User: Fold this.
Amino acid sequence: MKTYYPTIGLEIHAELSTASKMFCGCKNDPNEDRPNVNICPVCMAHPGTLPMVNQEAVKRVIKVGLALGSQIADFCEFDRKNYFYPDIPKGYQISQYKYPIISGGALKGFAITRIHLEEDTGLSKHDRGDFTLVDYNRAGVPLMELVTDPVIHSATDAASFARELQLLLRTLGVSEANLEKGEMRVEPNISISDDERKFGTKVEVKNLNSFKSVERAIEYELARMQALYEAGRQDEIVQETRGWDENKQVTFSQRSKENANDYRYFPDPDLPKMKLHSAFDIEVMKGELPELPWQKRERYAKDFGLKTGDIEVFVQDGKLAGYFEAVVMDTDPVFAQTAANYLISDVLGLMKKDTVAKLPEVVHFKELIAMVVGREVTSRGAKDILVLITTQSESPKKIAEEKGLLQQNDPEALKAVVQSIINANPKIIADYKSGKEAAIQGLVGQVMKETKGAANPTVTLQILKEMV
Assistant:
């Protein structure tokens, strides 16, 4: 079978969560439901108005570049990208072309071409029957665009890259990057070739509102292109923009793909040129970066010895990670992994089921994990105590004493219970004596039930074997 070589490059837009828009003082509020309330003469392009650069937006893009190990341009400028559409009031978009803020860098091992800053467009509403209305609240919101090199070769890697970028943007506090709100938009450029040395004709796919859609759209396009190649119809693959139909799970042709010269870029005469290394202290900004996701993964593996899946939970949830670190401070890896197990599997499970449940007080959760590690309570007993300390402030040790949940390790105290279980289960005893080793485990469970989970299962098993 012939080999085909897929190539994917990503264009990812992310709205920056600044207080105001990119070139005016209007409120930047993605949650505003009322149409056309966050607008002014500047973002509506009234004659005689002049834009002013939002310094905080520029700073946020620089932070992203520093985190990615990119080059921060000294000189940069804004350009006019000329095209007409109802959602851009000016008849052009202020963007960056020749001199972007960021160039180079990498994420998850994939090279980045550039990151530039521009303004977002308005939002067309097509839900009013046979006409369209435009909400300009979004017009002029600062929009970061990241472009990768064409170095990704699978749908899985493309979606993984986008997820990691979303996590980075949230870690840096520069964007909420919610795909469902349109705050982050992923647009893959996809091609396929039967010659590893050559690129095929690329198409760009839009209207992707989830990471799963990104993956599925790329997979669909690669399969569509391969089928055309195999049918000898590769000439039918044309450079175009395609949409994604979420319901049908297919792409569809929208328009022919424009080239840069179609937009007639030229420097915006109303905005000043920028010397970024003079305007910002780049070294100070680098030192102010928070711990980045890949740095946290490495530290959690080294310092706490956690499983990869558990580490990822904490990397994704900064609040939970802070709580976890407060619990495991000055403890060993066994304690840390035990705490992670109970926190992720049990505490989060309780919080999902019960709206009253919350993270236990650090001192109480730490005390409970110490009791588990020290075998003062069984796993069953610990789970019962967790239910209580997620809804009230009380010492786990006190709860265990009051409810008889302290683990019973004394063989003499357990023998009476074990004997009663043996007497009540002659068939299981007979099965065990006939060579069915697993049969006795059921008796251990019965002893645990009889003691409300307080019996030490290891000691119980040893006593059972001795008494049988």
Summary: The radius of gyration is 30 Å.
